[in-house]
Design brief:
The protein is α+β, with helices and mostly antiparallel strands. It contains four helices and 15 strands. Helix 2 runs antiparallel to helix 3. The longest helix has 44 residues. The two termini are 47 Å apart.
Length: 293
């Protein structure tokens, strides 16, 4: 009986030593590493209209990729286009009136010079001189008035043109549509969201570190990120932000040392070219503050 027990004890002791060794090795691997947990975040841009109007078309659906400058939506703008044509016609008509008024002014100014010469020679009366001078002054006023009208018409045209341009909504950046909140035919108002665009190629993870840890962190330091969806993968990242202000530990974050109440937010930027990581995923981050021993 004793002979059977001894091999079992030897095996158990050996297994214990293996477990201790593995744990010590694991702890050693974590030297020079600061870790924390958080949620994958992404920069989102709400696409909205600057105008009030009815949506004529939305060119993209949820999940579609878009390039910067690509047309995303367009509002109906027939009335604005009609107003633009009226403004353009007004400018053209006023321009013709100005040309005619300037010709008239030139003729009157030439006539004024002739009357002045006749007046000096005694061949024209004072009344004739005053009459032509009044006509010249009136013609000059008419030219100035028409020029002012053309400037107003041009300003009105530019304003309407801006409204027409604003009826077309373009992508401010390259990304992917992650939310569609309106449909063609709906009436929207300035600031009302139509689509939400996100750049999924570059995500961030915000973790919180103690005051004794944050001093070891520098911008650009290498980091590793892991998520439950890919337990065998580590995603490379780097420190892109270190908060200069301490804050109380967020309620949704559990720190290892509950006695530490003030923490510093640190953001890790993670390239995500294959879009494996998704916004909202819980993740664990490790910042490599020193080479592993």
């Amino acid at each position: 009986m004793l002979k059977k027990v001894i091999p079992i004890l030897v095996l158990a002791v050996g297994l214990l030593f293996v477990l201790i060794y593995v744990q010590l090795t694991k702890d050693a691997d974590k030297e020079g590493v600061l870790s924390g947990s958080g949620t994958i975040e992404v920069t989102e841009v709400e696409i909205s209209s600057k105008l009030a109007g009815r949506i004529e078309v939305i060119t993209k659906e949820e999940g579609d990729s878009v390039a910067k400058g690509e047309l995303l939506a367009q509002l109906e703008h027939k009335e604005l286009s009609a107003q633009l044509k009226v403004a353009e016609a007004t400018i053209k008509m006023t321009g013709a009136q100005i040309a005619q008024a300037r010709t008239n002014l030139k003729n009157l100014e030439d006539n004024l010079k002739r009357i002045e010469a006749l007046y000096k020679s005694g061949s024209a009366t004072q009344q004739q001189l005053e009459d032509i001078q009044t006509k010249v002054d009136g013609a000059r006023d008419q030219v100035r008035s028409l020029e002012f009208s053309r400037e107003q018409a041009a300003a009105q045209k530019n304003y309407i043109q801006a409204q027409v341009d604003n009826a077309k909504i373009f992508a401010p950046m390259t990304g992917r549509i992650i939310k569609k909140t309106a449909e063609a035919g709906e009436t929207v108002f300035p600031g009302s969201p139509i689509l939400t665009l996100a750049d999924l190629s570059k995500l961030t993870l915000k973790i919180y570190l103690k005051e004794t840890e944050v001093g070891l962190v520098k911008l650009g330091q290498a980091a590793k990120v892991k998520v439950d969806s890919y337990p065998d993968l580590e995603f490379d990242g780097s420190v892109s932000f270190i908060s200069p202000v301490a804050e109380f530990t967020p309620k949704n974050i559990q720190t290892k040392d509950e006695r530490v109440k003030l923490v510093f937010a640190v953001k890790i930027t993670i390239p995500n070219p294959e879009e494996k990581l998704k916004p909202g995923q819980p993740a664990d981050g490790e910042i490599l503050v020193a080479p592993a021993s």
